Amino acid sequence: MGNATQIDIKQEYLIPFHIRILGLFLLILGTVGTALSLYLLLTAGTYDWLLWLAPLLGILGAFIFYSHYRLQIDLKDRTYTVVTRIPFIKAGKPERFEHITKIYINEVKETTTYTTRAAMRYDSTNKLYKAFMKLNTGEKVHMDTDKIQEDLEARVKKYLEKLGDIYQPEREL
User: Fold this and answer.
1) Separation of alpha carbons 16 and 9, rounded Å
2) Whose CA is closest to 166, among 102, 77, 105, 98?
3) Helix axis angle, 17-43 relative to 50-66, nearest 10°?
4) Burial of 103 per CB tally in 10 Å (0-12, 13-18, 19+)
5) Keywords assigned by UniProt (predicted)?
6) What is the SS3 assignment for 46?
7) Long-range CB contacts (< 8 A, 24+ apart) of 88-95?
8) φ, ψ of residue 8 in degrees (nearest 5)
9) Which of 18-22, 25-29, 86-90 has the lowest mean pLDDT?
10) What whole-number distance in Å separates Cα of residue 88 and Cα of residue 75?
11) What is the pLDDT of residues 55-78, one digit of tens each?
12) Is 45 left (phi over 0), alpha (psi -120 to 50) or beta?
């Protein structure tokens, strides 16, 4: 989670799950191919086309598999940053706020339609729970996501403990 003055929340992956599996495959293929090519180069003295292609596949796989979003809240400076993390690259701009007025959880339904070659359709619906925080500026920022509401609520409680006096809930009339 970071140090005492910062909350670091890993949010969602940048790439869908099925493509991340391809990234993991490329990462493994690139690692094995590089090792094999270096072995052939050092033992037999032969230069193989895998020597330059395999590391590129491994790097591409790492980009696909490890890319994700993070929310970083700096409690000391009262800033938050939505960070896009790709291996070796970190992009995001800090935004200032005074306090958080509300934290809430929404239920979101995701529907995916699959179509086969025989023109049969299958619909798949999943429930997700997303936690948001509303800032004094009126902006709403996505905090965290989970498929299990109780797990998300437990993490949100931990975030609330760390936020301390930055969380100042609105009073209902």
Assistant:
1) 19
2) 98
3) 150
4) middle
5) Membrane, Transmembrane, Transmembrane helix
6) coil
7) 95/139
8) -120, 110
9) 86-90
10) 25
11) 899 999 999 999 999 999 998 899
12) left
Q: Give CA–CA dist 55/23, Å, rounded.
A: 13
Phi/psi for 125 (5° steps) reads -120, 130
For residue 104, the cross-strand partners are 132
Buried/exposed 71-91: b ≥16 CB within 10 Å, e otherwise:
bbbbbeebebbbbebeeeeee
Composition of the chain by helix, strand, coil, percent to 5: 35, 40, 25
For 105, the token pair is 């959880």
Section 73-102 average pLDDT: 91
Encoding tokens for residue 110?
Answer: 């995701």
Average pLDDT over residues 95-112: 90
> 129, 152 in Cβ contact below 8 A?
yes
Could you give the CA distance from residue 171 to residue 162 in angstroms, rounded to a whole number?
A: 21
Residue 66 to residue 53: CA distance in whole angstroms: 20
Tell me which residue has tokens 């003055």.
Answer: 5
